[in-house]
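Q: Sequence in, structure out?
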Amino acid sequence: MPRHAEPDRPDATRLLAEYVAGLRYDHLPAEAVAAARTALIDWVAVATVGSRTTRQGAAAAALAQEEAARPEALLFHDGSLTSASWAAFANGAASHAIELDDIHLPSIVHGGVAMVGAAVAMAQRLKASGKRLIEALVAGFDVQYRIGEAIAASHYQMFHSTGTVGTFGAAAACAKLLNLTVEQTQWALGNAGSQAAGLWQYLKLGDDTKLLHPGKSCMNGVIAARLAAHGFTGSVDIIEGERGFVATMSKQVDWNRITDRLGAYFKVTENGYKIHACCRHGHVTIDQTLRLAEEHDLDADTVRHVTAKLPTNSVLTIDDPDPPSSYKAKFSAQFMVANAIRYRRVGLDAFTTERLADPVIRSLMNRVTLAEEKAFNEGFPDKWTAEVIVETTDGRRLSARADMPLGEWNNPLPPARIEAKARELLGLVIPQQAANDLVARLKRLEMVADASTMLPELAAMATRNLAAE
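A: Exactly. Output:
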């Protein structure tokens, strides 16, 4: 049994269900509404590119298409229609494929990929308004991040929280859109919790399994909420129960992280966004390497050795001096650092077979060492401290350190930069004017009357693709 931060366990499942059922758009502060819009814009962009440009996204869409399900929600891969559950699966999985999705570091959950695909698909199925979708997004982010924060310190050692905790967020978002009662929302959370899964073994070789975690999180959230609407009961104490989620999947818990200011403070405002196309564990290291490279004009010829000091969990996740594939390179700090020095960026174009085979990159990777800094564990995961030390060929010793990567709530990117990122990504797969129009529409999400008409530029992709082929 886990160690509890408080003597008594709260009725966490019911408290969260009451919050979700009672949430109203008109009571949300402007910053929460704006944060939900930003999260949606970022997710639509990464999901569309992941769907259109990766073999994993294509495979997820192909499976959904083979099901020939009721046409009610968009497959971003080609603009065709499938059921809400299959759209949630395919789009959710694809949105994690390019490693540019959002993340909330205190809970270690990629919130958008775990939940937004479910909310969008359900909103399209129900023809819900933009305001109703905003309610769902705020509820989903809150539920998953609060549960995730409560158990992150130990849960994340064995479980990929995006798949486990994210399932609760997806179910909460769909429950909100379906106008479920408090009891029905508890059932939805109960059945979501029993489906929650996500094991780390995929990391050994960089298997595609990682994308199943958000795909199934989204899909299972849709199923759990729809079953509850039909009277299918679920464990009403799934989170706090003696054989429930926390007891079986965590060694310690801080219940206050779930209940603190619930309904008055909205976690979507803490969402973090990526500008480097790889695992978030490496982003502080990349930021500080770029800083040193730019300040001291470093290149492959002037760098003798680089040491990156990281928390234990980060070392376990991204210490890979010889990644076997360009996808696995997204979890190699050595590859990230080498690209930051040689190219001054670690974007989508970095993760190719050609770049991985580049002899200059390979040479630089051989000069990068990761070091476990146990002192950095004390603040993790509220802090993701990294220190980069560069020894130059002329004898200098340069260092830079930070606690959080660029893009986090306490080290934020301006919303305009996140929107620019979305326009740039969308412009890779649809005409640039269409990309601009789509982002502009999502910025006015509360004005949308019917979510099924919210993404016309993506729906039109089916016709364009056929013409191109």
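The beta strands are 3-4, 73-74, 81-82, 252-253, 303-310, 368-372, 386-392, 397-402.
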